[in-house]
């Protein structure tokens, strides 16, 4: 009996240690802060001879860890500190205080082994030559990352096929659409199979199809290759489709850090009903059943308490000229707007 | 172990230079009509300058102790130095400035390359050498071809002259690069960089012997515009044979290289990166 108990403890310990080993922390951030000095607006002469600066806190004492294989999103309004955090994780910015370790390395040391294992994609910046084709730029990356030519070309072909840009590989970048260019940037960034990919607004300005394509690709890379993905985006769909964890930042501080499900779970008690009418209905009539969130011709979206949903549906169906009703959870967009006090 | 690492580092740097040169050449060939325009403008410029020299030396026999043929040789070294400065330093500092301004530098700083080396030699514009430097120097070489015997050249002087060109280029490269790095703090360094380039070629119109003592002192120390052309030509033509200058200029080059590295590290530490 005692023997069985010991054996059980042994296997439990072994199991836990295997799990811990697999959940290797590859990013460790402790009390990280970043302050910028910005000039204070003064008169022309004063600004030249007695310039004044004020300090702006972009990131304020944040701590978190990321495990290998996670897909994490930084979410927050403009100027929240998302991109600054990302830039400190990649070693582009020196922290004002606190510590960052990525892949057991201090990023700003810019060690070859560290840089070899990461990639950075910025939606509004291009690392490819404007005048040359993507393939010619990839040749340069191949030299930089010391890749085997045949292998690299195979990878380019494979990635281009998934992202549906095979036909554009030999066109000058300036001739490509924004979506095609961004896809090329992605291929160039992950050509060397990085362990962590940092993405700053990767779908900025893209159409629906290109966005979907890139999201699927990122999800696939994360799932199949185990690549850790760190993403900042304003597009909630990017976050919902690609990431399983979200870190909400506002005014440089972390407001929420957990699974996306838990964030949406907080709002599970609320439902959105999209009411489609057969004829025009006055807003006052609809407002009797819930708070109007959105209004289009013949369509209203209202917010109701989850436990009142059935009652409201019955009442609306009986009293208003209903054609169809659609029930949804509170979308992430609305949750964010609620959190950041924009509603 | 250290020797192996050093070898690896040299190999990597060579690979970066050769790949970037090829890449830069392809880029400069992307606009072929522009290149032909460049070639034509250089030919016109050179013919105008040669006529100017001809008219000038029709009235005077010597300028700062240099005769017509010596002045032609001086002009040849001026052209070589100008194009070396252009294809290595000017193009790359211009790119550095734009990269800082647009935030594109971020994407290069995360690549596994020695960043300072990479941004210094990111684009070696061979297209410019082909379409600018050749038309500018070939007419001079043709005119000089029958006049070499007039020039007082010795083996030692020629060797010293070549070394001064190389070291002088390293020095002005560091000088212009450090000025270009102000973009890290101001966000835009185009005009400051232009001042640096103008100062670097300040000594390209008068031979070393024509400068007052004060300017000679400045041009061989803090604003080193006299090394690459004026001092080099003075040695080429045997007007100066004080070989201690070699040791001095070597020291100056090492000092400027050190200063450039320190300035780079300082700038990166204060880099605020253009907002996304």
Automatic annotation (TrEMBL), chain B:
Checking Pfam families in the record gives: ABC2_membrane_6
Which keywords are on file for this protein? Membrane, Transmembrane, Transmembrane helix
Query: So where does this one cross the membrane?
Result: 39-60, 72-93, 129-146, 158-185, 217-237, 243-259
Keyword set includes Acyltransferase: no
Entry keyword annotation includes Membrane: yes
* Tree of life domain: Bacteria
Q: Which PANTHER family match?
A: SLR0610 PROTEIN, SLR0610 PROTEIN-RELATED
Name the chain's protein: ABC transporter permease protein
Say which species the protein is native to.
Answer: Candidatus Collierbacteria bacterium GW2011_GWA2_42_17
